Amino acid sequence: MSSMFGKPRAGNASNDRNTQNHLPECNIALLGCRGAGKSALTVKFLTKRFISEYDPNLEDIYTSEEIVDQQPVLLRVMDTADQDGPVNCERYLHWASAFMVVYSIENKRSFDICHRYLEIISLHTKGVQQDHPVLLLGNKLDMERYRQVSKADGSSLATKYGYMFYEVSACLDFESVRQVFHDAVREVRRETERNLAVRPLFIAEEKPYLSLPIATAVSSKHGIPTFSTLSTVSYKEIPPVAQAKVITVKSSRAQSKRKAPTLTLLKGFKIF
Ligand SMILES: Nc1nc2c(ncn2[C@@H]2O[C@H](COP(=O)(O)OP(=O)(O)OP(=O)(O)O)[C@@H](O)[C@H]2O)c(=O)[nH]1
């Protein structure tokens, strides 16, 4: 992991686990048709590198410890591998706290398929009566001269659903890609705080309301939703960590991607 995804992290494995246990979490699912660039964006975000070939059939979840606006977060990224549009969506609909729906600006069909993803997410959100931030991403901005989807079309589709819209490129600058992932975290935080604000507090009869810290009252009585530990109480207990260190790779696709640089170099694939 450390050789490809970042510098080795100080501390041993059990310390890592302990730190992770205390971090607020954010689960981001990347959706979109084959070839839109989900894997390339994921790996760019995690490694700052563009790697041009991936196994399209493997799906996996990556975990990265990030600092967003001076606050740590355990970010999980699910790089999905739907074949040709949304199928068996339950696995990510119930898992994700935010969605990135990706199309390629040089492939109109990939944009059309995005409509279906946005529709499904929108229906799901209504069903669970909770908003999950959605970011519509037009990828491959570097392929401007082959563009088939205008920026206006992308933007108006996102606006129709009230979602955020970006155009990016997995093979151009890292900062723009990172910005998108961090904006997703910011939106999840906002959403969580909104939910906590409207949720009625349980007030134990024998304890005076004002003597309870709000965050404690909420989480102890109503369970901790994915992001509810974003209270200042939690943060102050967390030691500072270096920015954007990937600390865990969970399963097979991750392993295959981890090996990718060696394989791709041997096969002469482009690594920018
Ligand atoms: N020029 C350019 N090529 C890209 C970009 N992002 C991805 N690609 C290429 O597009 C192809 C598909 O990228 P992937 O990241 O595998 O796409 P995916 O959405 O994960 O597709 P599946 O793995 O099939 O689900 C690969 O050849 C990538 O190198 C980009 O921003 N610009």
UniProtKB/TrEMBL annotation:
<comment type="similarity">
    <text>Belongs to the small GTPase superfamily. Ras family.</text>
</comment>
<dbReference type="GO" id="GO:0003925">
    <property type="term" value="F:G protein activity"/>
</dbReference>
<dbReference type="InterPro" id="IPR027417">
    <property type="entry name" value="P-loop_NTPase"/>
</dbReference>
<keyword id="KW-0547">Nucleotide-binding</keyword>
<dbReference type="Pfam" id="PF00071">
    <property type="entry name" value="Ras"/>
</dbReference>
<keyword id="KW-0342">GTP-binding</keyword>
<dbReference type="InterPro" id="IPR001806">
    <property type="entry name" value="Small_GTPase"/>
</dbReference>
<keyword id="KW-0378">Hydrolase</keyword>
<dbReference type="GO" id="GO:0005525">
    <property type="term" value="F:GTP binding"/>
</dbReference>
<dbReference type="InterPro" id="IPR051065">
    <property type="entry name" value="Ras-related_GTPase"/>
</dbReference>
<protein>
    <recommendedName>
        <fullName>Ras-like protein family member 12</fullName>
        <ecNumber>3.6.5.2</ecNumber>
    </recommendedName>
</protein>
